[in-house]
Specification:
Elements (H helix, E strand, L loop, with lengths): L2 E3 L13 H10 L2 E6 L4 H13 L3 E5 L13 H9 L4 E10 L7 H18 L3 E6 L2 H12 L4 H4 L3 E3 L6 H9 L3 E4 L9 H9 L5 E3 L21 H12 L3 H16 L6
Parallel strand pairs: 1-2, 2-3, 3-4, 4-5, 5-6, 6-7, 7-8
Helix pairs in contact: 2-3, 9-10
Protein backbone atom coordinates (compact mmCIF):
# COMPACT_ATOMS: atom_id res chain seq x y z
CA UNK A 1 0.00 0.00 0.00
CA UNK A 2 1.44 3.34 -1.12
CA UNK A 3 0.27 6.61 0.44
CA UNK A 4 1.15 10.27 -0.08
CA UNK A 5 1.05 13.04 2.50
CA UNK A 6 0.19 16.00 0.29
CA UNK A 7 0.62 18.63 3.02
CA UNK A 8 3.17 18.50 5.85
CA UNK A 9 5.35 21.32 7.19
CA UNK A 10 8.37 19.05 7.64
CA UNK A 11 10.74 22.01 7.62
CA UNK A 12 9.31 23.60 10.78
CA UNK A 13 11.41 23.47 13.95
CA UNK A 14 8.94 21.02 15.51
CA UNK A 15 10.83 18.33 13.58
CA UNK A 16 14.39 19.57 14.11
CA UNK A 17 15.34 16.97 16.72
CA UNK A 18 14.14 13.87 14.87
CA UNK A 19 13.37 14.79 11.27
CA UNK A 20 15.23 11.82 9.78
CA UNK A 21 13.35 9.45 12.07
CA UNK A 22 10.03 11.10 11.11
CA UNK A 23 10.82 10.49 7.45
CA UNK A 24 11.83 6.90 8.20
CA UNK A 25 8.63 6.25 10.15
CA UNK A 26 6.62 7.62 7.25
CA UNK A 27 8.27 5.17 4.85
CA UNK A 28 7.61 2.29 7.27
CA UNK A 29 3.92 3.30 7.29
CA UNK A 30 3.79 3.24 3.49
CA UNK A 31 3.95 7.02 3.05
CA UNK A 32 6.51 7.23 0.27
CA UNK A 33 6.05 10.85 -0.80
CA UNK A 34 5.50 14.10 1.11
CA UNK A 35 4.77 17.63 -0.07
CA UNK A 36 6.04 20.58 1.99
CA UNK A 37 3.93 23.73 1.50
CA UNK A 38 5.49 27.18 1.81
CA UNK A 39 4.59 29.80 4.42
CA UNK A 40 6.90 32.72 3.63
CA UNK A 41 9.96 33.35 1.49
CA UNK A 42 12.51 32.01 4.00
CA UNK A 43 10.32 29.02 4.78
CA UNK A 44 10.04 28.34 1.04
CA UNK A 45 13.81 28.16 0.79
CA UNK A 46 14.12 25.67 3.64
CA UNK A 47 11.35 23.53 2.14
CA UNK A 48 13.15 23.39 -1.20
CA UNK A 49 16.43 22.52 0.52
CA UNK A 50 14.81 19.70 2.47
CA UNK A 51 13.13 18.34 -0.64
CA UNK A 52 16.43 18.43 -2.52
CA UNK A 53 18.05 16.36 0.21
CA UNK A 54 15.48 13.54 0.31
CA UNK A 55 14.03 11.33 -2.40
CA UNK A 56 10.23 11.47 -2.45
CA UNK A 57 9.91 14.87 -0.78
CA UNK A 58 8.62 17.80 -2.82
CA UNK A 59 7.95 21.47 -2.14
CA UNK A 60 5.38 24.13 -2.91
CA UNK A 61 6.23 27.82 -2.74
CA UNK A 62 3.94 30.61 -1.64
CA UNK A 63 3.15 33.21 0.98
CA UNK A 64 0.57 32.02 3.54
CA UNK A 65 -2.26 34.53 4.17
CA UNK A 66 -1.06 35.09 7.73
CA UNK A 67 2.33 36.14 6.32
CA UNK A 68 0.99 38.66 3.79
CA UNK A 69 0.98 41.88 5.85
CA UNK A 70 4.20 43.01 4.14
CA UNK A 71 3.55 41.32 0.77
CA UNK A 72 4.50 43.40 -2.27
CA UNK A 73 5.01 43.01 -6.00
CA UNK A 74 8.73 42.63 -5.23
CA UNK A 75 7.97 39.20 -3.79
CA UNK A 76 6.70 37.85 -7.10
CA UNK A 77 10.08 37.64 -8.91
CA UNK A 78 11.47 35.85 -5.85
CA UNK A 79 8.61 33.35 -5.87
CA UNK A 80 9.01 32.87 -9.61
CA UNK A 81 12.71 32.08 -9.14
CA UNK A 82 12.01 29.71 -6.24
CA UNK A 83 9.33 27.94 -8.27
CA UNK A 84 11.93 27.07 -10.91
CA UNK A 85 13.57 24.56 -8.56
CA UNK A 86 13.00 21.02 -9.85
CA UNK A 87 11.44 19.90 -6.55
CA UNK A 88 8.67 22.53 -6.69
CA UNK A 89 5.34 21.10 -7.84
CA UNK A 90 2.79 23.74 -6.76
CA UNK A 91 2.13 27.29 -5.59
CA UNK A 92 1.02 27.32 -1.97
CA UNK A 93 0.03 27.52 0.72
CA UNK A 94 -1.99 30.57 -0.38
CA UNK A 95 -5.48 31.82 0.37
CA UNK A 96 -7.37 33.74 3.04
CA UNK A 97 -7.52 33.45 6.82
CA UNK A 98 -10.10 35.54 8.66
CA UNK A 99 -9.66 33.70 11.97
CA UNK A 100 -6.34 35.25 12.95
CA UNK A 101 -5.79 39.00 12.73
CA UNK A 102 -2.26 38.76 11.41
CA UNK A 103 -2.75 40.50 8.07
CA UNK A 104 -5.39 42.96 6.80
CA UNK A 105 -7.99 41.38 4.54
CA UNK A 106 -7.02 43.68 1.66
CA UNK A 107 -3.38 42.56 1.94
CA UNK A 108 -4.45 38.92 2.01
CA UNK A 109 -6.62 39.33 -1.09
CA UNK A 110 -3.92 41.21 -2.98
CA UNK A 111 -1.34 38.53 -2.23
CA UNK A 112 -3.80 35.74 -3.00
CA UNK A 113 -4.76 37.11 -6.40
CA UNK A 114 -1.15 37.86 -7.32
CA UNK A 115 -0.10 34.31 -6.48
CA UNK A 116 -3.05 32.81 -8.32
CA UNK A 117 -1.92 34.75 -11.39
CA UNK A 118 1.63 33.48 -10.91
CA UNK A 119 0.40 29.89 -10.69
CA UNK A 120 -1.50 30.28 -13.95
CA UNK A 121 1.57 31.82 -15.59
CA UNK A 122 3.81 28.97 -14.41
CA UNK A 123 1.11 26.33 -15.04
CA UNK A 124 1.37 25.01 -11.49
CA UNK A 125 -1.58 23.87 -9.35
CA UNK A 126 -2.35 25.75 -6.14
CA UNK A 127 -2.67 24.66 -2.51
CA UNK A 128 -5.46 26.72 -0.97
CA UNK A 129 -5.70 27.75 2.68
CA UNK A 130 -9.17 28.80 3.80
CA UNK A 131 -10.09 29.61 7.37
CA UNK A 132 -13.41 31.32 8.03
CA UNK A 133 -13.20 32.96 4.59
CA UNK A 134 -15.08 30.47 2.40
CA UNK A 135 -17.24 32.98 0.53
CA UNK A 136 -14.35 35.17 -0.56
CA UNK A 137 -12.05 32.23 -1.31
CA UNK A 138 -14.47 30.39 -3.56
CA UNK A 139 -15.53 33.57 -5.37
CA UNK A 140 -11.91 34.37 -6.22
CA UNK A 141 -11.25 30.80 -7.34
CA UNK A 142 -14.36 30.68 -9.51
CA UNK A 143 -13.16 33.81 -11.30
CA UNK A 144 -9.59 32.48 -11.59
CA UNK A 145 -10.40 29.12 -13.17
CA UNK A 146 -12.23 30.74 -16.07
CA UNK A 147 -8.96 31.79 -17.71
CA UNK A 148 -6.65 28.91 -16.82
CA UNK A 149 -4.35 27.38 -19.43
CA UNK A 150 -5.46 23.95 -20.71
CA UNK A 151 -2.79 22.21 -18.62
CA UNK A 152 -4.51 23.33 -15.41
CA UNK A 153 -8.18 23.08 -16.36
CA UNK A 154 -8.58 19.61 -14.85
CA UNK A 155 -6.10 20.09 -12.01
CA UNK A 156 -6.24 23.67 -10.71
CA UNK A 157 -5.37 22.67 -7.15
CA UNK A 158 -6.54 21.45 -3.76
CA UNK A 159 -8.67 22.93 -1.02
CA UNK A 160 -6.30 22.10 1.83
CA UNK A 161 -7.77 20.62 5.01
CA UNK A 162 -11.29 21.16 3.76
CA UNK A 163 -13.57 22.63 6.40
CA UNK A 164 -16.28 24.40 4.40
CA UNK A 165 -19.92 23.43 4.09
CA UNK A 166 -21.56 21.30 1.39
CA UNK A 167 -22.18 24.31 -0.86
CA UNK A 168 -18.49 25.28 -0.80
CA UNK A 169 -17.48 21.67 -1.45
CA UNK A 170 -19.80 21.47 -4.45
CA UNK A 171 -18.56 24.77 -5.86
CA UNK A 172 -14.92 23.81 -5.40
CA UNK A 173 -15.49 20.48 -7.13
CA UNK A 174 -17.29 22.27 -9.98
CA UNK A 175 -14.15 24.38 -10.42
CA UNK A 176 -12.08 21.21 -10.78
CA UNK A 177 -10.51 21.33 -7.33
CA UNK A 178 -9.54 18.38 -5.19
CA UNK A 179 -10.42 18.36 -1.48
CA UNK A 180 -7.78 17.53 1.11
CA UNK A 181 -8.72 15.74 4.33
CA UNK A 182 -6.70 15.93 7.53
CA UNK A 183 -6.88 14.74 11.15
CA UNK A 184 -10.27 16.33 11.94
CA UNK A 185 -11.98 13.68 9.76
CA UNK A 186 -11.17 11.29 12.64
CA UNK A 187 -12.52 13.52 15.43
CA UNK A 188 -15.52 12.28 17.37
CA UNK A 189 -17.62 15.40 16.72
CA UNK A 190 -16.78 15.73 12.99
CA UNK A 191 -19.96 14.09 11.69
CA UNK A 192 -20.74 17.10 9.45
CA UNK A 193 -17.32 16.86 7.80
CA UNK A 194 -17.70 13.11 7.30
CA UNK A 195 -21.12 13.65 5.70
CA UNK A 196 -19.52 16.02 3.20
CA UNK A 197 -16.62 13.63 2.57
CA UNK A 198 -19.13 10.91 1.73
CA UNK A 199 -20.37 13.04 -1.19
CA UNK A 200 -16.92 13.84 -2.62
CA UNK A 201 -16.00 11.72 -5.66
CA UNK A 202 -13.21 9.28 -4.86
CA UNK A 203 -11.10 10.69 -7.68
CA UNK A 204 -11.08 14.14 -6.03
CA UNK A 205 -9.85 13.24 -2.53
CA UNK A 206 -6.37 13.78 -1.10
CA UNK A 207 -4.76 12.77 2.18
CA UNK A 208 -2.93 15.37 4.29
CA UNK A 209 -1.54 15.57 7.81
CA UNK A 210 -0.86 19.33 7.95
CA UNK A 211 1.84 18.20 10.38
CA UNK A 212 2.81 19.22 12.96
CA UNK A 213 -0.80 20.39 13.35
CA UNK A 214 -4.25 18.71 13.29
CA UNK A 215 -3.13 15.37 14.68
CA UNK A 216 -5.66 12.57 14.13
CA UNK A 217 -7.26 10.43 16.80
CA UNK A 218 -5.87 8.59 18.80
CA UNK A 219 -2.76 10.83 18.89
CA UNK A 220 -4.68 14.09 19.18
CA UNK A 221 -2.83 16.60 21.36
CA UNK A 222 0.60 15.38 20.22
CA UNK A 223 2.73 16.45 17.28
CA UNK A 224 1.44 15.23 13.94
CA UNK A 225 3.64 13.49 11.36
CA UNK A 226 3.30 11.73 7.97
CA UNK A 227 3.29 8.25 9.55
CA UNK A 228 -0.25 9.06 10.75
CA UNK A 229 -1.63 9.30 7.21
CA UNK A 230 -2.97 5.69 7.43
CA UNK A 231 -5.26 6.77 10.29
CA UNK A 232 -6.84 9.40 8.06
CA UNK A 233 -7.03 6.94 5.18
CA UNK A 234 -8.74 4.32 7.35
CA UNK A 235 -11.45 6.73 8.48
CA UNK A 236 -12.07 7.97 4.94
CA UNK A 237 -12.29 4.40 3.68
CA UNK A 238 -14.99 3.75 6.26
CA UNK A 239 -16.82 6.92 5.22
CA UNK A 240 -16.66 5.92 1.55
CA UNK A 241 -17.53 2.29 2.40
CA UNK A 242 -14.57 0.90 0.48
CA UNK A 243 -11.44 -1.02 1.43
CA UNK A 244 -8.37 0.75 2.75
CA UNK A 245 -6.39 -0.49 -0.24
CA UNK A 246 -8.94 1.02 -2.64
CA UNK A 247 -8.85 4.35 -0.80
CA UNK A 248 -5.05 4.34 -0.75
CA UNK A 249 -4.80 3.50 -4.44
CA UNK A 250 -7.25 6.24 -5.42
CA UNK A 251 -5.81 9.04 -3.30
CA UNK A 252 -2.25 8.22 -4.35
CA UNK A 253 -3.26 8.29 -8.02
CA UNK A 254 -5.06 11.60 -7.38
CA UNK A 255 -1.95 13.18 -5.86
CA UNK A 256 0.23 11.92 -8.70
CA UNK A 257 -2.21 13.37 -11.24
CA UNK A 258 -2.70 16.74 -9.55
CA UNK A 259 0.94 17.46 -8.76
CA UNK A 260 2.62 15.58 -11.58
CA UNK A 261 4.44 13.25 -9.20
CA UNK A 262 6.26 10.17 -10.47
CA UNK A 263 4.03 7.12 -10.12
CA UNK A 264 4.99 4.79 -7.31
CA UNK A 265 1.60 3.17 -6.87
Amino acid sequence: MTLIDTHCHLNLDSYDEDRDQVIARAAEAGVTQVIIPGIDLENNRSGIALSAAHDGIYAAVGVHPNSTAEFSDDDLPVLRELAAAPQVIAIGEIGLDYHWDKSPKISQKTAFQAQLALAAELELPVIIHNREASGDVIALLEAWVKSLPPSLKDRPGVMHSFSGNQNIADRALACGFYLGFTGPITFKKADDLREIAATVPLDRMLLETDGPFLTPTPHRGKRNEPAYIPLIAERLATVKQISLDALAHATTANAERLFGLPARS
